[in-house]
């Protein structure tokens, strides 16, 4: 068991193992991710935004400064959280967001998803802490960015306690992203601090 798993279990996520994903975890992680985009986002899998879900290995495991953490219970993946060295770009993100981050030095959190039956147990917080610890251990990164879909239950409240809102597409118009009136984006952009 890794040091991360021991530390997180001591923080109140008993019954789960938190670790960096291994190849055997990828089908379970993919299932958590796909279920989330279909159930919570209401639009399902969109290749232009979700290709990392299909090719987890290339996006999270192969690059040295990227990673994916999972929380598993009895060997079944219940939650995910990933780190990618990817600076947000405009379009599709608004310039108010992209101008805050240094190209090539930004860690972006992705796919912080918890299956509904495992929510409210501290898994998301523990996984985010593991991601931030990973980021802090990399000289490359000077900032942390993420965006969340406001339709995900509790997401905006969770991230608001951990970071600063940079741009809220529910109340401000993102002119860099064309959207259809039937399905507007409800993206909220955040910056988090790297622990030192």
UniProtKB/TrEMBL annotation:
Residues 16-181 form the N-acetyltransferase domain. InterPro entries: Acyl_CoA_acyltransferase, GNAT_dom, NAT_camello-type. PROSITE patterns: GNAT. Keywords: Transferase. This is GNAT family N-acetyltransferase.
